[in-house]
Amino acid sequence: MSKQVDIRTIGFIGAGNMPRSIIGGMVRGGYPANKIWASNRSRPKLDQLAQDFSVQVTQNNHELVAACDVIVMSVKPQLMKEVCADLKQHTSTISSKLVTTIAAGVPIANYHQYLGEQTRVIRIMPNTPSLVGEGVSGLCADSSVTEADRNYITQVFNYVGLTIWLEEESSIDVLGAVAGSGPAYFFEFMNGLQQAAEALGFDAKTARAMVQQTALGAAKMASESELSLVDLRKQVTSKGGSTAKGIEVYQERDLDGISDQVVRAAVARNQEMAKLF
Ligand SMILES: NC(=O)c1ccc[n+]([C@@H]2O[C@H](COP(=O)([O-])OP(=O)(O)OC[C@H]3O[C@@H](n4cnc5c(N)ncnc54)[C@H](OP(=O)(O)O)[C@@H]3O)[C@@H](O)[C@H]2O)c1
Fold it and tell me: CB of 132 closer than 6 A to ligand 1?
């Protein structure tokens, strides 16, 4: 771990899969386990976290808040109001902490309302590949969050992938529609290729292996190249060749137009859901 690392005591309220992955990434990355806390309603996930990563665990959210400088609210969105109200009532220090949240769809303004206007709030939208250390997290801060806070949280979420800071909170809906929902789009697309291979005689296992390794290889090439995605595509598309014939079908069906519609539909749904909180 490099010398510049900012070590604060951080606690996750709600110990589901996403906090578990972030904690795992932090510990593997060298973050001291005794500076990481997790609380959960029931006991089993906490016991597992303590056993796997030697972090501090408690079923008492107030104990966690008292011990931590940074809180990561990780309960389901529909429980957020109730959990915050309980913290505000019993833990007078909560409004002086850096409060971050990974709950989908709950705006920053709601946390100010639940915890006090002066609370420094960062809203984060991680995606599921964070579970395997290859995530994308969109982050958005209120105006009272300091540069040091931003750097600290960037460091934490970099343990599970790429971090992207957003100036406007509304951009979280777009990031969610692209990166949050994106894995499902890729799975859908990959499944189509797998089915095509099966229709032409491949067994399911081989077809899947071929498709997923190709996806991985293409993503790796894209991430290691300076070329645009269009130029990368051109590099594997010889004029008059078989790839060109395949791409022609996508272009005739307007795959770009379909992707545009897909993202817009998901953004609209994110905006609708945000109104529920
Ligand atoms: N999973 C993802 O890929 C993903 C991506 C982006 C954002 N998120 C966000 O992450 C949050 C958690 O999602 P999840 O999928 O991890 O949900 P989850 O598996 O249901 O985890 C939520 C956890 O919160 C615990 N909990 C409930 N009430 C509590 C309380 N009062 N105090 C402490 N802990 C409490 C639950 O405990 P029990 O075990 O006792 O029920 C459960 O372990 C959500 O807000 C979601 O929007 C998740």
Answer: no
